[in-house]
User: Fold these one by one.
Assistant:
Number 1:
Amino acid sequence: MTSIEKMNIGVIGCGKISSIYLQILQTFDILNITACADLDMERARTQARSFHIPRVLHVEELLADPEIELVVNLTIPSAHAEVGLATIAAGKALYNEKPLALTREQGHQLLAAAQTQGVRVGCAPDTFLGSGLQTCRKLIDQGLIGTPVAANAFMMSHGAESWHPNPDFYYQPGGGPLFDMGPYYLTALINLLGPIQRVTGTAKITFPERIITSEPKYGTKISVNTPTHIAGVMDFVGGAVGVLVTSFDVWSHQLPRIEIYGTDGTLSVPDPNTFGGPVRLRRAGENDWRDIPLTHGYTTNSRGIGIADMAYALRAGQPHRASGALAYHVLDSMQAILEASTEGRHIVLTSTCSRPEPLPSGTLETAWSDDNENH
Ligand SMILES: NC(=O)c1ccc[n+]([C@@H]2O[C@H](COP(=O)([O-])OP(=O)(O)OC[C@H]3O[C@@H](n4cnc5c(N)ncnc54)[C@H](O)[C@@H]3O)[C@@H](O)[C@H]2O)c1
């Protein structure tokens, strides 16, 4: 394999999620984290010290740095579009944390600006590139459950104010369980079943006010400005009917994360907020569930694999998997579920996307080596 030129990346947003990114990104040969930035310079300095990032810069300085080719935007959802547009305007590739943006208009603006500038947009989540969800993809593509008929997905908890140090954004537009956790579930479903054609749903706010019980803001009230219990129905272009319930209003439940029902069997899909298993299968006529050995690499937390894949794809001039088009389709689906609830109808989506290419088994490096055509 010929050696591939490393890509210099800059990270904007050095809050809670940045630690795992700063740790994992350094494990990919192609990536070189050269700088980090945050509105709060002290946070950026702390993370730079902990993860040996050579430079701490102001956001504008990072964007003006000609050596940085790709910016990883780990700011809060309400800043995703602004920081993303500034990144694109600086001529750099952009990888946003999820959601891509708060609104379709912002999402569209990001993709249009990137097209004009000739730069790429990528977006989290990238858990669908992990071993568990890639194993599921392979089983479905091999026809093990026949033609997918339906899917049920449930993400229900009691919210983030008991553990996140700064949980306000979870209860503002762009947060809530649908925008916060929905991207993992919808991205997983779209990767497995293809794009969505139309949606409907019901959404509500159960508790208009929340009280933080984590430190350092213990006792602070949060006013809830986005739905916290959302039941969505999705008709996939391929014919499957999906149900997605996301909630921050539920103390406990016994429902699966994701199940896919096919004409020839049922697939139990692992938590799409993780990279590993278990993957379980029960085909028509079988008496019990079977644990399926994982067939792919990346069984443990590999947040950032989508960024490494994007870097390899850029160097190879090929499409990357955690793409802006996929994230926009997810954003469009989530917005449409909320609108369907307000308007009391089905909403036909105007966006679509193709299923990302499956990953071959083995490492990303091998997948993108120039003697491997199986990108
Ligand atoms: N915390 C998690 O467990 C988790 C998990 C997966 C994904 N995410 C996603 O990661 C993103 C960040 O979440 P977090 O939990 O790290 O939030 P956080 O509040 O802990 O950190 C966000 C950081 O971004 C900085 N910031 C905000 N606006 C900025 C701007 N305009 N320019 C520069 N810096 C800015 C803040 O100062 C803060 O340090 C969100 O999109 C969230 O959905 C979080």
Number 2:
Amino acid sequence: MSENRKQPFSKAEKLIGGGVLLIVLSIIIPVWVTVESDRREAMTRADLDMLVSASERFFFDYGYWPSPHMGTAGDVRYGREAGNELVMNILRAIDGPGNEGHRLNPDRIEYVDVGYRGRGRSGVTETGRFVDPWGSPYQIVLDTDMNNVCTMTQTIYRNQTGVGVVAWSFGSDRRSDTDRDILSWAN
Ligand SMILES: [Ca+2]
């Protein structure tokens, strides 16, 4: 009897306990994954709204888009050939690439307030690149040739008429042009 007292759980009890634990985990883990992916998607949508509205406010104030490439035909896509830090430095009023000496945002207005990126959290890198919660740079197209069309290059997405800025995230698969992409516009 003293032997039994030293064993708080019998083998059968341990098996049952382990089974219950597995069942609980099998419920909790998928719920957590869904909650986490919903959280990241909501964060991404908020970032995209912020990028578009900040760019529009910038245009309203200055009469040009937050880009060092104004006048470039065919528009410029940031996040791919050109880093999006060129746009972000202008919108964040930072003296750096794209906005050297505050030349494009001379009033030094902070149109966006973005923190540093973290695990599962969007934000700017040390070089000022704005990345989504999965770590991929946000894609931004600005109407640099001012023809009221955002010309989309090297992507499945159509040119967007009547807007000066569009932005998108690669989403959870970290690849562009897939159904996981999160778009600032209704495709
Ligand atoms: Ca254009």
